[in-house]
Protein: UDP-glucose 6-dehydrogenase
Amino acid sequence: MRVCVIGTGYVGLVTGACLAHIGHDVICIDNNEEKVKLMKSGQSPIFEPGLSEIMQSAIQTGKIQFSSDLAAGVAHGEILFIAVGTPPLPTGESDTRYVEAVARGIGANLNGGYKVIVNKSTVPIGSGDWVRMIVLDGIAERQKTLVPAGGIPSDEVLPESVAQFDVVSNPEFLREGSAVYDTFNPDRIVLGGNSQKAITLMQELYTPIVERKYAADQSLPPVPVLATDLSSAEMIKYAANAFLATKISFINEVANICDRVGADVTQVAKGIGLDSRIGKKFLQAGIGWGGSCFPKDVAALIHTADDYGYEAQLMKAAVSVNERQRLIALEKLQQVLKILKGKTVGLLGLTFKPDTDDMRDAPALNLIEQLNRLGAKVKAYDPIVSQTGMRHGLSGVLVETDAERLADGCDALVLVTEWEQFSSLDYAKMAKLMLHPVLIDGRNFLDPETMVRAGFQYVGVGR
Ligand SMILES: NC(=O)c1ccc[n+]([C@@H]2O[C@H](COP(=O)([O-])OP(=O)(O)OC[C@H]3O[C@@H](n4cnc5c(N)ncnc54)[C@H](O)[C@@H]3O)[C@@H](O)[C@H]2O)c1
Ligand SMILES: O=c1ccn([C@@H]2O[C@H](COP(=O)(O)OP(=O)(O)O[C@H]3O[C@H](CO)[C@@H](O)[C@H](O)[C@H]3O)[C@@H](O)[C@H]2O)c(=O)[nH]1
Structure:
Protein backbone atom coordinates (compact mmCIF):
# COMPACT_ATOMS: atom_id res chain seq x y z
CA MET A 1 0.00 0.00 0.00
CA ARG A 2 1.10 3.61 -0.49
CA VAL A 3 1.82 5.26 2.85
CA CYS A 4 2.85 8.77 3.84
CA VAL A 5 4.19 9.41 7.34
CA ILE A 6 4.35 13.05 8.39
CA GLY A 7 6.85 13.74 11.19
CA THR A 8 9.96 11.58 11.39
CA GLY A 9 10.73 11.47 15.11
CA TYR A 10 10.89 8.40 17.32
CA VAL A 11 7.40 7.34 16.22
CA GLY A 12 7.18 8.54 12.62
CA LEU A 13 10.55 7.31 11.41
CA VAL A 14 10.21 3.94 13.12
CA THR A 15 6.67 3.51 11.75
CA GLY A 16 7.74 4.54 8.25
CA ALA A 17 10.82 2.32 8.21
CA CYS A 18 8.95 -0.71 9.62
CA LEU A 19 6.05 -0.32 7.15
CA ALA A 20 8.57 -0.10 4.31
CA HIS A 21 10.36 -3.17 5.67
CA ILE A 22 7.16 -5.22 5.47
CA GLY A 23 6.66 -4.20 1.83
CA HIS A 24 4.66 -0.97 1.73
CA ASP A 25 5.70 2.01 -0.40
CA VAL A 26 6.46 4.71 2.11
CA ILE A 27 7.28 8.38 1.91
CA CYS A 28 8.39 10.09 5.12
CA ILE A 29 7.84 13.84 5.34
CA ASP A 30 9.49 16.21 7.79
CA ASN A 31 9.68 19.99 7.74
CA ASN A 32 13.18 19.86 9.21
CA GLU A 33 15.38 19.99 6.09
CA GLU A 34 18.51 18.92 7.99
CA LYS A 35 16.79 15.74 9.13
CA VAL A 36 15.52 15.01 5.64
CA LYS A 37 19.02 15.42 4.22
CA LEU A 38 20.44 13.07 6.83
CA MET A 39 17.74 10.43 6.25
CA LYS A 40 18.16 10.60 2.48
CA SER A 41 21.81 9.71 3.03
CA GLY A 42 20.70 6.61 4.94
CA GLN A 43 21.44 7.96 8.41
CA SER A 44 18.98 7.97 11.25
CA PRO A 45 18.70 11.28 13.14
CA ILE A 46 17.88 9.33 16.31
CA PHE A 47 19.52 6.42 18.09
CA GLU A 48 17.18 3.44 18.14
CA PRO A 49 18.46 -0.16 18.01
CA GLY A 50 17.94 -1.76 14.58
CA LEU A 51 16.52 1.38 12.98
CA SER A 52 19.44 2.35 10.73
CA GLU A 53 19.63 -1.19 9.37
CA ILE A 54 15.98 -1.38 8.27
CA MET A 55 16.09 2.21 6.99
CA GLN A 56 19.09 1.47 4.82
CA SER A 57 17.67 -1.75 3.40
CA ALA A 58 14.36 0.00 2.61
CA ILE A 59 16.30 2.77 0.83
CA GLN A 60 18.11 0.13 -1.22
CA THR A 61 14.89 -1.64 -2.21
CA GLY A 62 13.29 1.71 -3.06
CA LYS A 63 10.51 1.13 -0.53
CA ILE A 64 11.17 4.34 1.40
CA GLN A 65 11.71 7.94 0.36
CA PHE A 66 12.28 11.07 2.42
CA SER A 67 11.09 14.56 1.59
CA SER A 68 10.08 17.90 3.05
CA ASP A 69 7.39 18.31 0.40
CA LEU A 70 4.04 17.71 2.09
CA ALA A 71 2.15 18.00 -1.21
CA ALA A 72 4.21 15.13 -2.66
CA GLY A 73 3.55 13.05 0.44
CA VAL A 74 -0.19 13.67 0.37
CA ALA A 75 -0.32 12.86 -3.35
CA HIS A 76 1.58 9.59 -2.76
CA GLY A 77 -0.23 8.15 0.26
CA GLU A 78 -3.55 6.38 0.39
CA ILE A 79 -2.85 6.24 4.11
CA LEU A 80 -1.52 9.44 5.69
CA PHE A 81 -0.03 9.16 9.18
CA ILE A 82 0.23 12.23 11.39
CA ALA A 83 3.19 11.53 13.69
CA VAL A 84 4.33 14.98 14.83
CA GLY A 85 5.05 15.94 18.43
CA THR A 86 2.40 16.94 20.97
CA PRO A 87 4.58 18.45 23.72
CA PRO A 88 3.14 19.73 26.99
CA LEU A 89 2.14 23.34 27.49
CA PRO A 90 3.04 24.86 30.90
CA THR A 91 -0.54 24.05 32.04
CA GLY A 92 -0.03 20.34 31.29
CA GLU A 93 -2.36 20.58 28.31
CA SER A 94 -1.14 18.97 25.12
CA ASP A 95 0.18 21.42 22.52
CA THR A 96 -1.59 20.35 19.34
CA ARG A 97 -0.29 23.11 17.08
CA TYR A 98 1.92 20.76 15.05
CA VAL A 99 -0.94 18.33 14.48
CA GLU A 100 -3.11 21.28 13.43
CA ALA A 101 -0.50 22.54 10.96
CA VAL A 102 -0.20 19.10 9.39
CA ALA A 103 -3.98 18.53 9.21
CA ARG A 104 -4.42 21.93 7.56
CA GLY A 105 -1.57 21.13 5.18
CA ILE A 106 -3.17 17.80 4.28
CA GLY A 107 -6.46 19.58 3.52
CA ALA A 108 -4.67 22.12 1.39
CA ASN A 109 -3.02 19.38 -0.66
CA LEU A 110 -5.64 16.65 -1.02
CA ASN A 111 -5.88 15.89 -4.71
CA GLY A 112 -8.78 13.51 -5.10
CA GLY A 113 -9.10 9.84 -4.31
CA TYR A 114 -10.05 8.32 -0.99
CA LYS A 115 -7.53 8.78 1.86
CA VAL A 116 -7.30 7.53 5.41
CA ILE A 117 -5.84 10.16 7.73
CA VAL A 118 -4.36 8.47 10.77
CA ASN A 119 -3.66 10.14 14.09
CA LYS A 120 -0.55 8.35 15.33
CA SER A 121 0.43 11.26 17.56
CA THR A 122 -0.88 11.11 21.10
CA VAL A 123 -3.68 13.65 20.98
CA PRO A 124 -6.36 14.88 23.40
CA ILE A 125 -9.64 12.98 23.41
CA GLY A 126 -11.85 14.46 20.73
CA SER A 127 -8.97 15.18 18.35
CA GLY A 128 -10.21 12.78 15.68
CA ASP A 129 -13.25 14.93 14.93
CA TRP A 130 -11.17 18.09 15.35
CA VAL A 131 -8.62 16.86 12.79
CA ARG A 132 -11.46 16.14 10.34
CA MET A 133 -12.64 19.73 10.81
CA ILE A 134 -9.16 21.20 10.29
CA VAL A 135 -8.63 19.14 7.13
CA LEU A 136 -11.97 20.42 5.80
CA ASP A 137 -10.83 23.97 6.71
CA GLY A 138 -7.66 23.36 4.73
CA ILE A 139 -9.72 22.26 1.73
CA ALA A 140 -12.00 25.31 2.07
CA GLU A 141 -9.03 27.71 2.26
CA ARG A 142 -7.56 26.21 -0.89
CA GLN A 143 -10.89 26.41 -2.61
CA LYS A 144 -11.12 30.12 -1.80
CA THR A 145 -7.80 30.75 -3.50
CA LEU A 146 -9.05 28.92 -6.59
CA VAL A 147 -12.30 30.86 -6.99
CA PRO A 148 -11.84 33.96 -9.07
CA ALA A 149 -13.51 37.02 -7.52
CA GLY A 150 -17.23 36.82 -8.34
CA GLY A 151 -16.49 33.66 -10.29
CA ILE A 152 -17.85 30.14 -10.44
CA PRO A 153 -19.05 28.42 -7.24
CA SER A 154 -16.25 26.74 -5.32
CA ASP A 155 -17.59 23.18 -5.59
CA GLU A 156 -17.09 23.37 -9.30
CA VAL A 157 -13.44 24.25 -8.87
CA LEU A 158 -12.29 21.42 -6.63
CA PRO A 159 -13.82 18.02 -7.39
CA GLU A 160 -15.90 16.55 -4.58
CA SER A 161 -13.58 13.56 -4.37
CA VAL A 162 -11.00 15.84 -2.75
CA ALA A 163 -12.97 15.68 0.48
CA GLN A 164 -13.24 11.89 0.47
CA PHE A 165 -11.34 10.92 3.55
CA ASP A 166 -11.80 9.37 6.95
CA VAL A 167 -9.90 9.92 10.17
CA VAL A 168 -8.66 6.98 12.22
CA SER A 169 -7.01 7.04 15.63
CA ASN A 170 -4.18 4.51 15.76
CA PRO A 171 -2.33 5.20 19.02
CA GLU A 172 1.28 4.11 19.27
CA PHE A 173 2.55 2.01 22.19
CA LEU A 174 6.21 1.56 21.25
CA ARG A 175 8.89 2.18 23.87
CA GLU A 176 12.02 4.11 23.06
CA GLY A 177 15.07 1.89 23.06
CA SER A 178 13.06 -1.03 21.66
CA ALA A 179 10.88 0.83 19.17
CA VAL A 180 11.62 -1.38 16.16
CA TYR A 181 11.14 -4.56 18.19
CA ASP A 182 7.88 -3.23 19.64
CA THR A 183 6.56 -2.33 16.19
CA PHE A 184 7.06 -5.88 14.93
CA ASN A 185 5.92 -7.45 18.22
CA PRO A 186 3.02 -5.36 19.50
CA ASP A 187 0.73 -6.52 22.31
CA ARG A 188 -2.24 -5.09 20.39
CA ILE A 189 -3.19 -2.72 17.62
CA VAL A 190 -5.92 -0.19 18.38
CA LEU A 191 -7.94 1.32 15.54
CA GLY A 192 -10.49 3.96 16.43
CA GLY A 193 -12.90 5.34 13.88
CA ASN A 194 -16.41 5.32 12.55
CA SER A 195 -15.70 4.29 8.95
CA GLN A 196 -15.57 0.54 8.30
CA LYS A 197 -13.82 1.25 4.98
CA ALA A 198 -10.98 3.05 6.76
CA ILE A 199 -10.66 0.40 9.49
CA THR A 200 -10.52 -2.35 6.85
CA LEU A 201 -7.70 -0.55 5.00
CA MET A 202 -5.79 -0.15 8.26
CA GLN A 203 -6.22 -3.86 9.00
CA GLU A 204 -4.85 -4.65 5.56
CA LEU A 205 -1.87 -2.36 6.19
CA TYR A 206 -0.97 -4.17 9.39
CA THR A 207 -1.72 -7.73 8.20
CA PRO A 208 1.94 -8.93 8.11
CA ILE A 209 2.46 -7.62 11.64
CA VAL A 210 -0.85 -9.04 12.88
CA GLU A 211 0.12 -12.42 11.40
CA ARG A 212 3.50 -12.16 13.16
CA LYS A 213 5.47 -12.49 9.90
CA TYR A 214 8.21 -10.26 11.35
CA ALA A 215 7.83 -11.23 15.00
CA ALA A 216 10.56 -12.64 17.22
CA ASP A 217 8.21 -15.58 17.91
CA GLN A 218 6.20 -16.34 14.78
CA SER A 219 4.31 -19.18 16.46
CA LEU A 220 2.34 -16.79 18.66
CA PRO A 221 -1.37 -16.28 17.91
CA PRO A 222 -2.21 -13.21 15.78
CA VAL A 223 -1.86 -9.77 17.35
CA PRO A 224 -5.23 -8.69 18.77
CA VAL A 225 -6.71 -5.81 16.78
CA LEU A 226 -9.16 -3.73 18.75
CA ALA A 227 -11.56 -1.58 16.73
CA THR A 228 -13.17 1.18 18.78
CA ASP A 229 -14.75 4.58 18.36
CA LEU A 230 -12.36 7.52 17.97
CA SER A 231 -12.56 8.86 21.53
CA SER A 232 -12.06 5.46 23.13
CA ALA A 233 -8.93 4.83 21.05
CA GLU A 234 -7.55 8.22 22.09
CA MET A 235 -8.39 7.46 25.73
CA ILE A 236 -6.75 4.01 25.57
CA LYS A 237 -3.41 5.66 24.84
CA TYR A 238 -3.61 8.04 27.81
CA ALA A 239 -5.03 5.41 30.15
CA ALA A 240 -2.26 2.93 29.29
CA ASN A 241 0.48 5.44 30.03
CA ALA A 242 -1.23 6.74 33.17
CA PHE A 243 -1.64 3.17 34.46
CA LEU A 244 2.01 2.26 33.83
CA ALA A 245 3.25 5.49 35.41
CA THR A 246 1.01 4.90 38.43
CA LYS A 247 2.31 1.34 38.75
CA ILE A 248 5.89 2.68 38.92
CA SER A 249 4.92 5.36 41.43
CA PHE A 250 3.27 2.65 43.51
CA ILE A 251 6.41 0.51 43.66
CA ASN A 252 8.52 3.61 44.35
CA GLU A 253 6.28 4.40 47.30
CA VAL A 254 6.67 0.80 48.50
CA ALA A 255 10.47 1.20 48.07
CA ASN A 256 10.48 4.28 50.29
CA ILE A 257 8.61 2.34 52.97
CA CYS A 258 11.03 -0.60 52.50
CA ASP A 259 13.91 1.80 53.16
CA ARG A 260 12.38 2.69 56.48
CA VAL A 261 11.37 -0.76 57.68
CA GLY A 262 14.41 -2.65 56.38
CA ALA A 263 12.75 -4.69 53.61
CA ASP A 264 14.14 -5.15 50.09
CA VAL A 265 11.89 -3.76 47.35
CA THR A 266 13.47 -5.94 44.66
CA GLN A 267 12.32 -9.03 46.56
CA VAL A 268 8.95 -7.46 47.30
CA ALA A 269 8.46 -6.64 43.59
CA LYS A 270 9.28 -10.23 42.70
CA GLY A 271 6.88 -11.49 45.33
CA ILE A 272 3.94 -9.37 44.22
CA GLY A 273 4.79 -9.60 40.51
CA LEU A 274 4.35 -13.38 40.56
CA ASP A 275 0.66 -12.76 41.19
CA SER A 276 -0.67 -12.90 37.64
CA ARG A 277 -3.21 -10.20 38.51
CA ILE A 278 -0.32 -7.80 39.22
CA GLY A 279 2.37 -8.99 36.77
CA LYS A 280 6.11 -8.48 37.13
CA LYS A 281 6.60 -5.70 34.56
CA PHE A 282 6.96 -2.03 35.50
CA LEU A 283 7.76 -2.80 39.12
CA GLN A 284 11.35 -1.59 38.94
CA ALA A 285 11.78 0.91 41.77
CA GLY A 286 14.26 3.73 41.26
CA ILE A 287 14.63 7.43 40.68
CA GLY A 288 11.27 7.83 38.98
CA TRP A 289 9.74 7.90 35.55
CA GLY A 290 10.69 10.40 32.87
CA GLY A 291 10.96 10.64 29.12
CA SER A 292 8.89 12.31 26.48
CA CYS A 293 5.67 10.41 27.19
CA PHE A 294 4.71 9.51 30.76
CA PRO A 295 5.13 12.99 32.30
CA LYS A 296 3.36 14.78 29.45
CA ASP A 297 0.60 12.23 28.92
CA VAL A 298 -0.31 11.91 32.59
CA ALA A 299 -0.34 15.73 32.85
CA ALA A 300 -2.55 15.96 29.74
CA LEU A 301 -5.07 13.44 31.09
CA ILE A 302 -5.22 15.27 34.43
CA HIS A 303 -5.80 18.48 32.47
CA THR A 304 -8.57 16.92 30.38
CA ALA A 305 -10.28 15.63 33.54
CA ASP A 306 -10.01 19.14 35.05
CA ASP A 307 -11.62 20.57 31.91
CA TYR A 308 -14.59 18.31 32.58
CA GLY A 309 -14.78 19.31 36.27
CA TYR A 310 -13.23 16.09 37.55
CA GLU A 311 -10.17 15.95 39.78
CA ALA A 312 -8.02 12.94 38.81
CA GLN A 313 -6.73 12.40 42.35
CA LEU A 314 -4.93 9.09 41.84
CA MET A 315 -3.03 10.41 38.81
CA LYS A 316 -2.13 13.60 40.64
CA ALA A 317 -0.75 11.45 43.48
CA ALA A 318 1.27 9.37 40.99
CA VAL A 319 2.80 12.61 39.67
CA SER A 320 3.60 13.96 43.10
CA VAL A 321 5.20 10.67 44.24
CA ASN A 322 7.29 10.81 41.05
CA GLU A 323 8.38 14.42 41.56
CA ARG A 324 9.73 13.49 44.95
CA GLN A 325 11.23 10.23 43.69
CA ARG A 326 13.20 12.01 41.01
CA LEU A 327 15.21 13.63 43.80
CA ILE A 328 15.58 10.51 45.96
CA ALA A 329 19.24 10.16 44.90
CA LEU A 330 19.91 13.67 46.21
CA GLU A 331 18.36 12.73 49.56
CA LYS A 332 20.57 9.65 49.72
CA LEU A 333 23.69 11.63 48.78
CA GLN A 334 22.96 14.06 51.59
CA GLN A 335 22.46 11.19 54.06
CA VAL A 336 25.89 9.78 53.19
CA LEU A 337 28.00 12.84 52.35
CA LYS A 338 26.05 15.35 54.51
CA ILE A 339 27.25 18.55 52.84
CA LEU A 340 27.25 18.60 49.06
CA LYS A 341 28.81 22.04 48.56
CA GLY A 342 32.23 21.58 46.97
CA LYS A 343 31.74 17.83 46.45
CA THR A 344 31.99 16.14 43.06
CA VAL A 345 29.20 13.80 42.03
CA GLY A 346 29.51 11.55 38.98
CA LEU A 347 26.41 10.40 37.11
CA LEU A 348 26.49 7.03 35.39
CA GLY A 349 24.01 7.57 32.58
CA LEU A 350 22.05 10.64 31.51
CA THR A 351 19.29 9.50 29.16
CA PHE A 352 15.87 8.80 30.67
CA LYS A 353 16.28 5.08 29.97
CA PRO A 354 18.90 2.87 28.28
CA ASP A 355 19.28 2.33 24.52
CA THR A 356 18.02 5.77 23.58
CA ASP A 357 19.60 9.18 23.02
CA ASP A 358 16.48 10.93 24.29
CA MET A 359 17.01 13.39 27.13
CA ARG A 360 13.46 14.76 27.19
CA ASP A 361 12.30 15.06 30.81
CA ALA A 362 15.13 12.80 31.99
CA PRO A 363 15.47 12.48 35.81
CA ALA A 364 19.18 13.30 35.32
CA LEU A 365 18.21 16.87 34.44
CA ASN A 366 16.53 17.46 37.83
CA LEU A 367 19.46 15.89 39.60
CA ILE A 368 22.02 18.08 37.79
CA GLU A 369 20.00 21.21 38.51
CA GLN A 370 19.60 20.44 42.22
CA LEU A 371 23.22 19.33 42.71
CA ASN A 372 24.38 22.57 41.06
CA ARG A 373 22.02 24.56 43.30
CA LEU A 374 23.57 22.92 46.37
CA GLY A 375 27.10 23.78 45.16
CA ALA A 376 28.21 20.34 43.98
CA LYS A 377 30.26 19.81 40.84
CA VAL A 378 28.57 17.34 38.47
CA LYS A 379 30.26 15.07 35.96
CA ALA A 380 28.60 12.39 33.87
CA TYR A 381 29.32 9.52 31.54
CA ASP A 382 26.63 8.18 29.23
CA PRO A 383 27.37 5.69 26.44
CA ILE A 384 25.35 7.70 23.93
CA VAL A 385 25.46 11.29 25.15
CA SER A 386 29.24 11.08 25.63
CA GLN A 387 29.50 10.06 21.96
CA THR A 388 27.07 12.56 20.53
CA GLY A 389 28.62 15.42 22.52
CA MET A 390 26.69 18.30 23.94
CA ARG A 391 24.04 18.41 21.28
CA HIS A 392 21.40 18.00 23.97
CA GLY A 393 22.14 21.49 25.26
CA LEU A 394 23.13 20.14 28.69
CA SER A 395 24.50 22.65 31.14
CA GLY A 396 25.99 22.39 34.64
CA VAL A 397 27.59 19.03 33.90
CA LEU A 398 30.96 17.96 32.55
CA VAL A 399 30.45 15.04 30.17
CA GLU A 400 33.33 12.54 30.41
CA THR A 401 34.35 10.07 27.73
CA ASP A 402 34.49 6.95 29.90
CA ALA A 403 33.46 5.59 33.28
CA GLU A 404 36.96 5.61 34.80
CA ARG A 405 37.54 9.25 33.96
CA LEU A 406 34.16 9.89 35.50
CA ALA A 407 35.07 8.13 38.75
CA ASP A 408 38.40 9.95 39.03
CA GLY A 409 38.17 12.46 41.90
CA CYS A 410 34.45 11.89 42.64
CA ASP A 411 32.98 11.90 46.13
CA ALA A 412 30.11 9.73 44.97
CA LEU A 413 28.64 8.09 41.90
CA VAL A 414 24.94 7.89 41.09
CA LEU A 415 23.74 5.26 38.63
CA VAL A 416 20.99 7.14 36.81
CA THR A 417 20.40 4.95 33.73
CA GLU A 418 20.68 1.16 33.66
CA TRP A 419 22.78 0.86 30.49
CA GLU A 420 23.77 -2.80 30.03
CA GLN A 421 27.47 -1.91 29.84
CA PHE A 422 27.29 -0.55 33.41
CA SER A 423 26.94 -4.14 34.65
CA SER A 424 30.53 -4.95 33.65
CA LEU A 425 32.60 -1.85 34.46
CA ASP A 426 35.82 -2.24 36.45
CA TYR A 427 34.22 -1.02 39.67
CA ALA A 428 37.20 -1.99 41.86
CA LYS A 429 39.42 0.28 39.76
CA MET A 430 36.80 3.02 39.77
CA ALA A 431 36.45 2.86 43.59
CA LYS A 432 40.20 3.42 43.94
CA LEU A 433 40.06 6.52 41.74
CA MET A 434 37.41 8.15 43.91
CA LEU A 435 37.77 10.41 46.95
CA HIS A 436 34.91 8.57 48.66
CA PRO A 437 33.79 5.31 47.03
CA VAL A 438 30.05 5.87 47.46
CA LEU A 439 27.62 4.45 44.91
CA ILE A 440 23.95 5.40 44.88
CA ASP A 441 22.26 2.86 42.59
CA GLY A 442 19.27 4.83 41.34
CA ARG A 443 17.94 1.85 39.38
CA ASN A 444 18.76 -1.05 41.76
CA PHE A 445 20.72 -2.34 38.80
CA LEU A 446 23.92 -3.59 40.41
CA ASP A 447 24.50 -6.42 42.84
CA PRO A 448 25.06 -4.84 46.30
CA GLU A 449 27.47 -7.56 47.49
CA THR A 450 29.64 -7.28 44.36
CA MET A 451 29.78 -3.52 44.80
CA VAL A 452 30.81 -3.85 48.45
CA ARG A 453 33.52 -6.32 47.41
CA ALA A 454 34.70 -3.77 44.81
CA GLY A 455 35.21 -1.34 47.69
CA PHE A 456 32.01 0.72 47.46
CA GLN A 457 29.59 1.92 50.05
CA TYR A 458 26.47 0.80 48.17
CA VAL A 459 23.09 2.50 48.56
CA GLY A 460 20.08 1.30 46.58
CA VAL A 461 16.50 2.54 46.43
CA GLY A 462 14.37 0.56 48.90
CA ARG A 463 16.88 -2.23 49.40
N1 LIG B 1 8.51 8.91 21.54
C1 LIG B 1 7.77 7.86 21.84
O1 LIG B 1 8.27 6.88 22.37
C2 LIG B 1 6.30 7.85 21.56
C3 LIG B 1 5.59 6.65 21.68
C4 LIG B 1 4.20 6.66 21.43
C5 LIG B 1 3.57 7.83 21.04
N2 LIG B 1 4.30 8.98 20.93
C6 LIG B 1 3.60 10.18 20.44
O2 LIG B 1 3.92 10.32 19.06
C7 LIG B 1 4.05 11.71 18.70
C8 LIG B 1 5.43 11.96 18.12
O3 LIG B 1 6.38 11.74 19.13
P1 LIG B 1 7.95 11.68 18.80
O4 LIG B 1 8.64 11.34 20.08
O5 LIG B 1 8.16 10.83 17.61
O6 LIG B 1 8.21 13.21 18.41
P2 LIG B 1 9.56 13.86 17.87
O7 LIG B 1 9.61 15.21 18.47
O8 LIG B 1 10.69 12.93 18.03
O9 LIG B 1 9.29 14.00 16.29
C9 LIG B 1 8.35 14.84 15.72
C10 LIG B 1 8.82 15.15 14.30
O10 LIG B 1 7.79 15.89 13.64
C11 LIG B 1 8.41 16.88 12.82
N3 LIG B 1 7.42 17.94 12.52
C12 LIG B 1 6.91 18.88 13.34
N4 LIG B 1 6.03 19.66 12.66
C13 LIG B 1 5.98 19.18 11.40
C14 LIG B 1 5.28 19.56 10.22
N5 LIG B 1 4.42 20.59 10.24
N6 LIG B 1 5.49 18.87 9.09
C15 LIG B 1 6.34 17.82 9.06
N7 LIG B 1 7.05 17.42 10.14
C16 LIG B 1 6.87 18.09 11.30
C17 LIG B 1 9.59 17.34 13.64
O11 LIG B 1 10.57 17.96 12.84
C18 LIG B 1 10.06 16.00 14.22
O12 LIG B 1 11.01 15.38 13.38
C19 LIG B 1 3.74 12.47 19.98
O13 LIG B 1 2.38 12.79 20.01
C20 LIG B 1 4.06 11.47 21.08
O14 LIG B 1 3.32 11.71 22.26
C21 LIG B 1 5.63 9.01 21.15
O1 LIG C 1 9.64 -0.57 36.10
C1 LIG C 1 9.92 0.52 35.57
C2 LIG C 1 9.72 0.78 34.20
C3 LIG C 1 10.04 2.04 33.70
N1 LIG C 1 10.54 3.00 34.54
C4 LIG C 1 10.82 4.35 34.01
O2 LIG C 1 9.68 4.79 33.29
C5 LIG C 1 10.06 5.64 32.22
C6 LIG C 1 9.43 5.20 30.92
O3 LIG C 1 9.96 3.96 30.54
P1 LIG C 1 9.39 3.12 29.30
O4 LIG C 1 7.93 3.00 29.46
O5 LIG C 1 10.16 1.88 29.19
O6 LIG C 1 9.79 4.04 28.07
P2 LIG C 1 9.00 5.01 27.07
O7 LIG C 1 9.76 4.97 25.80
O8 LIG C 1 8.76 6.31 27.73
O9 LIG C 1 7.60 4.27 26.77
C7 LIG C 1 6.37 4.65 27.39
O10 LIG C 1 5.82 5.77 26.73
C8 LIG C 1 5.59 5.56 25.31
C9 LIG C 1 5.10 6.88 24.74
O11 LIG C 1 3.76 7.10 24.96
C10 LIG C 1 4.58 4.43 25.15
O12 LIG C 1 4.32 4.24 23.77
C11 LIG C 1 5.11 3.17 25.80
O13 LIG C 1 4.14 2.13 25.71
C12 LIG C 1 5.41 3.46 27.26
O14 LIG C 1 6.00 2.31 27.88
C13 LIG C 1 11.59 5.63 32.19
O15 LIG C 1 12.07 6.78 32.86
C14 LIG C 1 11.96 4.39 33.00
O16 LIG C 1 13.19 4.49 33.63
C15 LIG C 1 10.76 2.74 35.89
O17 LIG C 1 11.19 3.60 36.64
N2 LIG C 1 10.44 1.49 36.36
Observations:
- The chain has 18 helices and 14 strands.
- The chain has a mean pLDDT of 95.
- Residues 297 and 308 are 17 Å apart (CA to CA).
- Residues 6-12, 29-32, 35, 83-86, 98, 101-102, 121-122, 172, 174, 176, 292-293 surround nicotinamide-adenine-dinucleotide (ligand 1) (CB under 6 Å).
